[in-house]
Amino acid sequence: MDSLILIMFIFMLVSFGAAIAFYPGFKFYRFHKLHSPDLTYTLQIHPTPKFKYISDSTKRILENSASGYTIDPFIPLNTAVDHHKSRIESIYLGNITSLTTMEVEFKTSSGQSLWLEQHLLPYHNWRGKLKGYNAIARNITEKKELEHRLQWLSHHDDLTGVYNRNYLEQILQSPHHLSFPMTVLLCDFDNMKVFNDEYGHDQGDYILRSFTRITHEYLGESAQIYRYGGDEFVIFIPGTFFDGEMDEVIAGIQKPLASIVVENHRLSVSIGYSFVYNEIDLRHAIKFADQRMYQQKKQHHETIVTTSRI
Question: Which of 8, 60, 119, 235 is deepest in the core (most CB within 10 A)?
């Protein structure tokens, strides 16, 4: 009897010790289950598609409960964006035969874009036939948004939203996709440095944004606007114009700008133009438009000087 009591006592001690040893691991498991940035799942594709397991992080990451996926195993296919549906289809069709990583964009129930990076590992039945996939997926939406932002900035000016000089140089090196003939405008603000010194760069930035907005609205989406320098812009317009028509085009850009008043001060922009009929002469056309622009800038300066003397 005493031996039995001793055995029970030792068993209780061992059990208690095991519980103490297991408890920190259990806490870690529970924390990982609730807060892990990863989504894990097992998707059976044969004989019929079915989620055999999907982690509780589904609700936090995908805005859908795990039970929704067990009821409808085709939610991933139905919520993938159109140009990525083929990637999800390759999973359901069993076309993935080895460890594979894929990035897929989905639309959530709230209409937001959601990117998942998935690592899929096929598993098989005892006969070696593909049964389904074990997978780990991670939300990489912020990473993709940053990539898209950096890609956009490589071609666009952050202040005005128009194309930047870096992209213009790429176009000049490979202009074969441009439509010829076309009109080239080179625009440069008059006395912008003096304006910035007197009223501040915030007001100068406002003028530049207003200029690009006005010009886009006036010339239409077919016109390509590039920020060439601080307050210089190059514009490509499909087609050519008669000289009289060009006067109207230039006035259509300059007059709305003159209506923008900052503390009783108006800024003007000098504009030169040229026509180009093939990609070989494009750089020369920009240079010729630049020369015409400086001629107009000189006329603006002389007008200001004459007015101040009167």
Answer: 235
CA–CA distance, 49 with 73 (Å, rounded to integer): 6
Burial class (CB in 10 A: 0-12, 13-18, 19+), 226: buried
State the amino acid at position 107 in one-letter form.
K
**Cβ(94)–Cβ(109) under 8 Å?**
no
Answer yes or no: are the C-beta atoms of 253 and 216 closer than 8 Å. no
Does residue 32 have a pLDDT over 90? Answer: no
The pLDDT of residue 183 is 95
Task: Say which residues have a Cβ less than 8 Å from residue 270's Cβ, sequence separation at least 6.
Answer: 187, 188, 189, 190, 293, 294, 296, 297, 300
**The model's pTM:** 0.73
Peptide bond into 47 cis (omega under 30): yes
Residue 188 CA neighbour count, 13 Å, CB half:
21
**In sequence order, what are the residues at sequence separation of 6 or more whose Cβ sits closer than 8 angstroms to the Cβ of residue 99?**
119, 120, 121, 122
Give the separation between CA 167 and CA 173, rounded to whole angstroms: 10
Helix, coil or strand: residue 133: strand
Write down the residue that tokens 């519980």 correspond to: 19
* Tens-place pLDDT, residues 50-88: 999 988 887 777 777 777 888 899 999 999 999 999 999
